[in-house]
Write a structure and sequence with these properties.
Layout lengths: L2 E7 L40 E3 L12 E6 L2 E5 L2 E7 L10 E9 L5 E6 L2 E9 L2 E5 L4 E4 L4 E5 L4 E7 L5 E9 L10 E5 L6 E4 L2 E7 L1 E2 L2 E2 L10 E6 L4 E6 L4 E8 L1 E4 L4 E4 L2 E5 L9 E3 L6 E7 L6
Parallel strand pairs: 1-25, 2-20
Antiparallel strand pairs: 1-20, 3-24, 4-5, 5-6, 6-13, 7-12, 8-11, 8-13, 9-10, 9-12, 11-14, 15-16, 16-19, 17-18, 21-24, 21-26, 22-23, 22-25
Family: Belongs to the pirin family.
Pfam family, one: Pirin
Organism: Oryza sativa subsp. japonica (Rice)
Length: 306
Amino acid sequence: MSAAACISSFPPPPMAAAAAPAPETTIDVFVVANHTPVTAAADKSSCEGDVVAGGGRTVRRPRAVARTLECERRVVGEGFAVRRGIGRKELDSLDPFISLDEFEFSPPAGFHDHPHRGFENVTYMLEGGFSYHDFSGHKGTINTGDVQWMTAGRGVVHAEMPGGHGVQRGINLWINLSSKDKMVEPRYQELASHDIPAAERDGVSVKVIAGEALGARSPLQTRTPALCLDVAMRPGARLRAPVPPGWSACSYVIDGEAVFGDEAAAAGAHTCVVFGGGGDGVPRGRRSAPRRGSCWLRRGRTARPW
């Protein structure tokens, strides 16, 4: 039996006949798990109208929300600020996730030569972009909506600098590698925004960063089994994404407001929502309309043994 992530948006309020349609709400969902296909499927145990993500798995008992953590903006250097969801005092890790940051910086701030080793470094740009190069001569630029999946393996020394003027904003996630993969050769994989596979069903639009969803499959290959989705939801739409038992799951609300789970746990912008390990699903979250919002939901198999 699998678990599931369940996310939904609030339905729009009643409108007069002449009123303009309510603007869409948007939920960006980042999921880390195995490459199990995600489908929209009928499920008698699901709420009517749910888009069920799970390759045929049923969803009966959504996971409870274990905790919510507000992520304050902290300036950590000239022109650079982060909101940390994982890798802080209250949540130092969530195996296999080492850290999760929402970051922003402006020129001339950037990251000069620095090392990484033993994990996968995922960067998803929300606004702007950055240019990078490493000691082996690999270089390039990622822009708004692009993703870079770097497997540091036995070690990488690289630099990351602003790719343009103004604010550069994105999500950075570190995913631990198992002991057998700690010393693999470093590898970069990039997907431009227009190359990320996408699918849409019943008010739910999905960009598949890694893994497979609604018949769309990402070409990215991950050492730590991963399913990563960027989901846009219309008001009233709902999503359920299975999570295998024993796997970690959490979400990060970027903009707007959401509620998660049968307990309707509320989470405002810049909040990390951690789900418990019981049940066979991660609870649904609801977006408030008409505000725009984003929510990154991740699930992942533990990386042990080290």
